[in-house]
Amino acid sequence: MTHSIEKTTEYEKLIEDLRELIETGRLRAVQAVSEVFIQTNWQLGRRIGQAVEIQVPDESPGFIGRLSADLEVSPAALYRALQFYRAYPEGLPATPEIARLGWSAHVDLLSVKDPEALRFYTQLAFEQDWSRATLRKAIRANLFAVEKAKGEGHRASIERPQSGLHTYLAIVERVIDGDTLEARVDLGFDVWRVEHIRLRGLDAPELRTPEGQAAKRFVARELADVPFVVLRTYKTDKYARYVADVFYSTEAKKKELVFEKGTFLNQQLLDNGHAERMYY
């Protein structure tokens, strides 16, 4: 015998919470598999690299070919693992963009030999959820050199996002420092959660310095009279803070208008000399 359950607000919230838990679990499982795969490829590359170093250089291709046949793994896969290890010979950096960026993106990044450029593309691809096509386009266009030249000769800037995906209304509870906020985020369905927010693409001075204190005061003044801010979130950093763009307005009352036409806090910090442009 089945029992009918009235679809109350509490029950609907239960369903929403359970769906969120299931989806979060699925995403974490996929992410865990990806992280293990990336670590495994680096370890394969290191072991192959140790063996290749004792071979005569001209014989290395034949050596890889023999490994390929014996392991029943394509030569290309073994070469990619070896290249991946050589890109990070001291070990994989303990940063979320390395662990969570897909293997296909790491394969495309193997063509980038300059360590600084590699960090640049890795960070942007991770933060902005670039597709493989977008990453390839950026590398071909030498975006790193273009942005570096801008930084040397022009005002530093952060590209303002156009997509309204992953945007949330939030109330700032506390300004922690020039580039970090504590905010109560509206997740919908009357669900709010307090999160630490790290502003994307910039680095403010340490809080213990006079410059750091000035940056914090600047942010506090800018947000003092706004009823809410809009966050455009990306990923979490190694401290589990959400990396985000922050938009605000003292006039607009709708989330969509604040996102489209509100003041871009990240850029304001750069424009007023309270932070530096950072890609990693």
What is the fold named in CATH at topology level of the largest domain? OB fold (Dihydrolipoamide Acetyltransferase, E2P)
- What value does the average pLDDT take? 86
Task: Order the strands across the largest sheet as they lie in space.
Answer: 1-2-3-6-5
Work out the strand percent.
Answer: 15-25%
Work out the count of structural domains: 2
Radius of gyration: 23 Å
What characterizes the major β-sheet? 5 strands, mixed, barrel
Count of DSSP-assigned helices: 11
Tell me, what's the shape? globular
Overall helicity: 40-55%
Residue ranges: pLDDT <50 for 5 or more in a row?
A: none
What are the salient characteristics of this protein?
280 residues, alpha+beta, OB fold (Dihydrolipoamide Acetyltransferase, E2P), 2 domains, five-stranded mixed barrel, two-stranded antiparallel sheet, 11 helices
Kindly describe this structure.
The chain is of the alpha+beta class and 280 residues long. It has two domains: 85 residues; 111 residues, OB fold (Dihydrolipoamide Acetyltransferase, E2P). 51% of the residues lie in helices and 18% in strands. The protein has a five-stranded mixed β-barrel. α1 crosses α3 and α5 packs parallel to α7. The protein is globular, with a radius of gyration of 23 Å.
